[in-house]
Structure to design on (448 residues):
C-alpha cells in the first residue's frame, strides 16, 4: 500500500509528498482509514512506529472542510517535548493547508500563548496543566472541538494527569471523534478508554514487545563503576547519536559533566532546566552539535531523532514498560539500533520482567579491557551533592541602614519609668478629644 492510495485532500497529499512519505507504517495503514471514516480509535503502538502521522494526516484532511479561526482539534500530550514534536509534524505535513497550530504548555510565559489563541487557530497541541490554566482563565474556547486526541495515554497516567484529563474532557463537546494512542494497555487505560471512546476501532502494532529492529545487551557492573564503563563502552563502540538514561536529574547532570570532561560533545536534559535550555539541548542533539544526550525519563517520549544508534540505560528503569519506552528512541523508521543496559545485583527482578516481555534471555556482556575489580571508594565522590556554603551574617554599613522601626539599633536606650508612662498616657488622652460645655459632648481630634 502507498500513501497516494488514501483519499486525502490535494493540499494534504502535497504535504505528504513534500515530506517524502511513500509507504505507510503498519499503524498508519491500519489507523488512517478508520480515522478518515470518523470512527473513534484505540491505537496500541510503541514509540517510533509513525503513530503521530497516523492521526495528524486525517485531522488535517478533516479540517480542510468547514470554518477557520476557532479550535477544532485538540491533541493532549504528556510532555513539552512530545507536544513540540507533534506540532512540528503538523507544520511539515500541513504546510500547504494554511491551517494554524499552536503548542500550549507550562515552563514558559502564558501571554504569548493567549495572544496566538486570540488570532484564531484550528489545532491546539497541549499539556494538561497549562491547558487547564487557559480553561480557568477563559482564554481558550473548546466548544467547537471536533477531534480529541489523547497521545501517550499510559505515560499521562504514570505522570498523574488522569484527573486533569477528566476535567478537560468535561469542557469539550460530547459529540466528537476521540482518538487514544498508548504504547501499553494497563487496566487504568482500559477503564479510561471505556469511558471516553464510543464503539472504537482498535488497532494494535507490536504491542507485546519492543521493536524488532533493536538488539539488546546487558552489562553487569557495580554501581561505582558505571561511569567508567560508560566511557570505556563509548570508546570501543561505533556510534552515531547516543541517548543515555539515568534515574534522577542530579545523576543526569553529573554524568553529562563527566562526559564533557572526557572530551565528548555531551549535554544533559532534565527537569531543572528552563524550557529554552531544554529546547536548546534537544535542537543541538537533533542537529548533531551534541553526540551524547543524557536524560531522565521525562525525555523517553518526545525525542524524534532518526540518527540515534544506541540507547544506554545507565540506570535500570522502574518498569518493563518504561524499558520499552526508552529503547523506542532507537531502531526507528525501519533502521536498526542497540539497547545497552547496565545492571547491578539489585536489578535481577527487573531483568526477568524485561526478558518476559522480550520473550528471550538477553545476552550478558563483559568488556575485556575493563577493570571490574576496582574497589568502591570510601565515600561517594561522584554523585555526592556539594555541601552548602555557610550563610554569613550580613553586616550593615552606614549606606545600608536596615529597614524597620529601630532596626539595627545598637545604642543603649534610657529605661522608661512609671512616671514617664503616666505623662505619655495623659498627653495622648488630652489630644484625642475636645470637651464641649455647650452641649455636654466631646469631639474626636485625629492625631496628626
Amino acid at each position: 500500500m502507498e500513501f497516494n492510495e488514501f483519499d486525502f485532500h490535494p493540499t494534504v497529499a502535497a504535504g505528504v509528498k513534500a515530506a517524502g512519505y511513500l509507504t505507510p507504517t503498519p499503524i498508519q495503514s491500519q489507523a488512517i482509514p478508520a480515522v478518515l471514516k470518523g470512527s473513534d480509535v484505540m491505537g496500541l503502538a510503541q514509540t517510533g512506529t509513525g503513530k503521530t502521522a497516523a492521526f495528524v494526516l486525517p485531522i488535517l484532511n478533516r479540517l480542510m472542510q468547514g470554518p477557520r479561526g476557532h479550535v477544532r482539534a485538540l491533541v493532549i500530550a504528556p510532555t513539552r517535548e512530545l507536544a513540540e514534536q507533534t506540532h512540528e509534524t503538523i507544520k511539515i505535513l500541513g504546510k500547504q493547508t494554511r491551517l494554524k497550530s499552536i503548542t500550549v504548555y507550562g515552563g514558559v510565559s502564558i501571554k504569548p500563548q493567549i495572544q496566538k489563541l486570540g488570532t484564531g487557530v484550528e489545532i491546539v497541541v497541549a499539556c494538561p496543566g497549562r491547558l487547564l490554566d487557559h480553561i480557568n482563565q477563559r482564554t481558550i474556547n473548546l466548544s467547537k472541538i471536533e477531534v480529541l486526541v489523547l497521545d501517550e495515554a499510559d505515560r499521562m497516567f504514570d505522570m498523574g494527569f488522569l484527573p486533569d484529563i477528566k476535567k478537560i474532557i468535561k469542557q469539550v463537546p460530547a459529540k466528537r471523534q476521540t482518538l487514544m494512542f498508548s504504547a501499553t494497555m494497563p487496566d487504568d487505560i482500559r477503564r479510561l478508554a471505556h469511558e471516553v471512546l464510543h464503539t472504537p476501532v482498535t488497532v494494535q502494532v507490536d504491542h507485546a514487545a519492543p521493536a524488532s529492529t533493536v538488539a539488546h545487551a546487558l552489562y553487569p557492573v557495580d554501581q561505582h563503576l558505571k561511569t567508567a564503563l560508560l566511557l570505556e563502552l563509548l570508546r570501543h563502540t561505533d556510534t552515531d547519536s547516543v541517548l543515555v538514561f539515568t534515574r534522577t536529574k542530579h545523576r543526569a547532570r553529573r554524568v553529562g559533566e563527566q562526559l564533557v570532561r572526557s572530551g565528548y560533545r555531551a549535554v544533559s536534559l532534565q527537569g531543572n532546566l528552563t524550557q529554552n535550555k531544554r529546547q536548546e539541548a534537544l535542537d543541538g542533539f537533533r542537529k548533531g552539535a551534541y553526540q551524547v544526550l543524557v536524560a531522565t525519563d521525562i525525555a523517553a517520549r518526545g525525542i524524534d531523532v532518526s540518527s540515534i544508534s544506541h540507547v544506554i540505560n545507565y540506570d535500570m528503569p522502574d518498569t518493563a514498560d518504561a524499558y520499552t519506552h526508552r529503547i523506542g528512541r532507537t531502531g526507528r523508521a525501519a533502521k536498526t539500533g542497540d539497547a545497552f543496559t547496565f545492571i547491578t545485583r539489585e536489578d535481577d527482578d527487573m531483568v526477568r520482567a524485561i526478558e518476559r516481555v522480550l520473550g528471550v534471555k538477553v545476552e550478558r556482556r563483559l568488556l575485556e579491557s575493563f577493570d571490574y575489580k576496582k574497589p568502591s571508594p570510601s565515600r561517594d565522590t561522584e554523585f555526592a551533592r556539594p555541601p552548602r556554603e555557610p550563610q554569613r551574617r550580613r553586616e550593615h554599613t552606614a549606606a545600608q541602614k536596615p529597614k524597620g522601626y529601630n532596626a539595627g539599633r545598637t545604642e543603649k536606650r534610657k529605661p522608661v519609668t512609671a512616671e514617664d508612662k503616666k505623662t505619655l498616657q495623659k498627653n495622648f488622652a488630652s489630644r484625642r478629644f475636645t470637651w464641649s460645655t455647650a452641649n455636654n459632648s466631646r469631639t474626636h481630634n485625629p492625631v496628626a
